[in-house]
Amino acid sequence: METDRKSHLIKKLGDVKCQRVDEYVVPGLEDEATEIEHFLAEPKTGHVSVDEILCFEKENLERHLKMEDYLCAFDYGWKISSGGLDCIHGQGGEDLKLEEVLDGLLDDDFLLDTEFPEKFSEPDVGPREVSSLESNSACGILESSIATIREPNSKNGKRVGFDLRHTFRSKYRSRGPVTDTVRPTREHVQDLDVSNNDEKPLASPILSNQKVKSSVKVTKGDTLLRQKRQRKPTRRYIEELSRNSTTENIKCRKVPSESRLWRGRPKKIVPKLEFESDSELSASEFEDEHKRTKRSKTACDRRKHQRTWTLAEVIKLVDGIAQYGVGRWTDIKKLLFASSAYRTPIDLRDKWRNLLRSSSAQIDNQRELQVVNKPKHPVRPLPKPVVRRILELATIHPYPKLSSSFLHRNY
DNA sequence: ATTAGGG
DNA sequence: CCCTAAT
Questions:
Q1: CB of A46 within 7 Å of some strand B atom
Q2: Exposed, middle or buried: residue A267 (CB in 10 Å: 0-12, 13-18, 19+)?
């Protein structure tokens, strides 16, 4: 029985990996539509769209977020420099094939640091599944997200992709319905997020089945996942480790990853008991580790660990600040980033601080950037709408120590 | 426990 | 991102 499921799963995954990019990447498109709508909606009015609620499960998938960034970029008329595409919704844009677009995207260095097939091997979904999903989770997820794609025209992936693209486009173009959405109360949002905790140990039911179970049992909030970890390794220990094996990036990733997990959720639930379970990597940790950014080895030693912010995240953050105001980072974290085990409130604040800095700088250099914007320059500017909102918020909720530089600035 | 500031 | 002081 168990083996049956496993083999089924494996087969399923095999199928997935054979999928073409344009096929299995498509589910993210609709999602993106909701995200964009969400963003486009006026911050002060209700902007949690019904779509978002309905789709919140899908939204949890990190891979979707990745795609969102690109699609956001399209919305802002960004240039896909290497693809030779000017902007998707231009006149000629209508004729673009989805795969062409994706090709351009793949060449672009914008936030595409993860291979697609890999992403599907680490499905993370809402915890609601968690209970019933211990044995057959991955199957359900994969099937639901892929079957829909294959269904319409199983013979021709291209065609399917094309159609879906239109679905997406039409959806995000008509931003009308978004505005009249019901604004969820705080409680609603809370509920949503609680059941929405996407960093749940579903990363790889296949790989660490038992462990998932053990750590899921206690799961209720977003912090309980770490229960396995009883004791924080001493800093010396960590340093020792990284010094002893200067060799592989394995160390570069692993050590920081662990220390990262300690931060943010220090003692809350951690009992005094101590039995070392270091060898046991909980699913969430596995996922965490798995998703850890891959970058040059040189950067590894400087920043212990870092995860690049996606556009979607930035937008979410800006929205959160618009709602709750600057300074209430714990609230924002709990309500909007409950699904992200990383991104501590401090991270949010840091990000905001950086956003302020960069967006003001971007205003200054706007013209210069467009001229000098040879693809070589790794600086990818924020979409103007985002910058706009950031600056607006900056004036409304002045950030200590930085606000002065903004107030006398007119944009 | 959280936040502001600085590194 | 990390750390610390202050609240």
A1: no
A2: exposed
Q: Give dist(CA A199, CA A260) in Å, integer.
A: 15
> CA at A304, C1' at C2: how many angstroms apart?
9
As a rounded value in angstroms, the CA-to-C1' distance for A240 and B1 is 30
Q: Collapse the DSSP code of A80 into the 3-class scheme (helix H, G, I; strand E, B; otherwise coil) and give the result.
A: strand
Q: Report residues 363-382 of A contacting strand B, contact meaning Cβ closer than 7 Å.
A: none
* Nucleotide with smallest C1' distance to residue A306 CA: C1
303-322 of chain A touching strand C, CB 7 A cut-off: 303-307
| Residue at shortest CA–C1' distance from B2 | A330
The gap between A305 CA and C1 C1' (Å) is 7
Q: How far is the CA of A157 from the C1' of C5 (A)?
A: 58
Cβ neighbours of residue A278 under 8 Å, at least 6 residues apart? none
Name the nucleotide with the smallest C1'–CA separation from A351.
Answer: C1
Measured in degrees and rounded to the nearest 5, phi and psi for residue A144 equal -65, -35
For chain A, list the domains and their CATH numbers.
2-183 (no CATH), 209-291 (no CATH), 311-407 (1.10.246.220)
Whether any strand C atom is under 7 angstroms from the Cβ of A6: the reply reads no
Cα A70 → chain centroid: 12
A 285-344, residues with C-beta < 7 Å of strand B:
326-331
**pLDDT by residue, tens only, chain A of 411 residues:** 434 555 554 444 444 433 333 333 333 333 333 343 344 433 333 333 333 333 333 334 344 444 444 444 444 434 333 333 332 333 333 333 343 333 333 333 333 333 333 333 333 333 333 333 333 333 323 333 333 333 333 333 333 333 333 333 333 333 333 333 333 333 333 333 333 333 333 333 333 333 333 333 333 333 333 344 444 444 444 444 444 433 333 333 333 333 344 443 343 333 333 333 333 333 333 444 444 444 444 444 445 677 888 888 998 898 889 888 888 899 999 888 888 888 889 999 999 998 888 887 776 766 665 665 565 666 667 788 888 888 888 777 777 666 555 555 544
A376 contact partners, CB below 8 Å, separation of at least 6: none
Q: How far is the CA of A53 from the C1' of C6 (A)?
A: 39
Q: How far apart (Å, rounded) are the C-alpha atoms in residues A22 and A159?
A: 10
